[in-house]
Amino acid sequence: MTRIREFVPADGDRLRSLWTESGFRLIADDDAGLARFAARNPGLFLVAQDGPQIVGSAMGAWDGRRGWLYHVAVAPSHRRLGLATQLVDQVEARLRELGCQRALVMVEAANAGALAFWNTRGYSRRETHHLGKSL
User: Fold this and answer.
1) pLDDT at residue 18 above 90?
2) pLDDT tens digits, 89-129
3) Has domain 2-120 been given CATH number 3.40.630.30?
4) Exposure pattern of 25-44 as b/e (b: 16+ CB <10 Å)?
5) Which residues contact 42 (CB under 8 A, 6 or more apart)?
6) Are 71 and 57 a contacting pair, CB within 8 Å?
7) By the 8 A CB rule, do 59 and 13 touch?
8) Measured distance CA(34)–CA(121) in Å, rounded
9) CB–CB of 115/126 below 8 Å?
10) 45: exposed, middle or buried (C-beta count within 10 Å: 0-12, 13-18, 19+)?
11) I want to staple 56 with a disulfide (CB 3.0 to 4.6 A). Which of 25, 74, 91, 93 is the partner?
12) pLDDT in tens, 23-62
């Protein structure tokens, strides 16, 4: 039975496996980085667990102005069961409780499946440029 719960530090290796399998680039996703993220965003970092296996994740963040969703992923064995929707619903509800009025997500342009998922959730494409710099 799959259950959704908050991240705990022991989840790191299993999350990184899920994210690698899902095609995410792992930046600051070591144990220390995950612990920092969870501490800065209490209650917003969720995992879905089926037995000992982590089969889903959603990392929510709020900077006091906008909410963000990162690393929304579901293992291939658990896709098309509504798990990503449940994870996102819970993060969005928790963001609303904090006073957040807008949530944003970054999606790789070539990831048609992810774009379709987010569009069905009411997220729309914005003509902006994502810029980054390694510090």
Assistant:
1) yes
2) 999 999 999 999 999 998 888 889 899 999 999 999 888 87
3) yes
4) eeeebeeeebeebbeebeeb
5) none
6) yes
7) no
8) 26
9) no
10) buried
11) 74
12) 888 888 999 999 999 999 999 999 999 999 999 999 999 9
